[in-house]
Amino acid sequence: MSILVQKPGLLSTFQDGGRWGYQSLGVNVSGIMDPSAFRLANILVGNDAQQTCLEMTVLGASLLFEHHACIALTGAFLNPHIDDSPIQNNHAYFIKAGQTLHFKTGATTTGARTYLAIFGGFNLPNVMHSHSTDLKSKLGGLNGQALKKQDRITLNGTFADTHIPLLKERINSQRIYLSSGLGLQKRASIRVLTGVHFDLFSPESQQQFLHQSFKISPQSDRMGYRLQGQTLNLTKPLQIFSEPSNFGTIQVPPDGNPIILMADRQSTGGYPKIANVITADLGYLAQSLPGEQIHFTLTTLEEAQQSWFERLKRFEQLKQQLHDTVKTLHQYFSHF
Length: 336
Known about the structure:
There is one protein chain. The chain is an alpha+beta fold. It is 20% helix and 27% strand. It has helices spanning 35-45, 164-173, 203-211, 282-286, 301-321, 323-332; strands at 2-7, 12-15, 53-57, 62-65, 69-77, 80-82, 85-86, 92-95, 100-103, 110-118, 152-154, 157-159, 190-194, 214-216, 224-228, 243-244, 249-251, 259-261, 268-269, 273-277, 293-294, 296-298, 333-335. Strands 21-14-15-18-17-20-13-22 form an eight-stranded mixed β-sheet. Strands 7-6-9-4-1-11 form a six-stranded antiparallel β-sheet, with no helix packed on it. Strands 2-3-10-5-8 form a five-stranded antiparallel β-sheet. Helix 1 runs parallel beside helix 5 (301-321). It is elongated and about 70 Å long.
């Protein structure tokens, strides 16, 4: 009822929607970096949209399955294989006991983070209503850490040998339409809303922020993306109280180089906030690599809400396409 980690990859952690409700105690939210890829992976295998996934960064893990499982990969394309057979993102597959999921190194990859969902989910401890791995506090996930070689990951169930041919046929015959915006894509610019302190920046800095590009610094991680480019300046020095932080908030420290707060952000922050990345574009940002250039475009709250609502609508349409297949998976799934 487990998966053996043969190689852990560069940074592989279990993540869900996050550890909400504890920021007042100084506990980070953590959670997935790409909300769309995370939701898509779960829908493709018939899970609840917030079921825990394995998030792998840049270099995927090598995982030996000791029981049959139905899996899907989304987000970054890291050249996945089941044994010697290449597989694709955005499609469900059956992997048999004794087979290995791994990722070819040295080949061209697209994006930064891949999500692995497994039908029925992973058996992980619930810490403050979440399975997400908080690396700084060593909470959640598998012992509060990234995967290590020889770790064993427990599953919630499997499928009997006799049912695999039927289920594989059902999965392989499923034809789905993946509408625009659900798969991995690039945007020419990242859409933002003005932050609470936007008007306190000089007019020149406001224009530079919106009309010039920034490079993602190598000193970027799940906590924050540090940007390099034109330094941004306030019209006058500002002292502010620390405030609750949010995924996608763009704050500007005294050196004038913006930082985008990401999933592992601290619970509060005291730097001026020039803008906020909209929810619908967080995934595009999360799939960007250090060294890449990004641009920001100002949008409205109405457009930001509509963009996310439209994407949720397309996810619901996809769930309807997969309804009969998911029903069959539930029928033959055996809980441990």
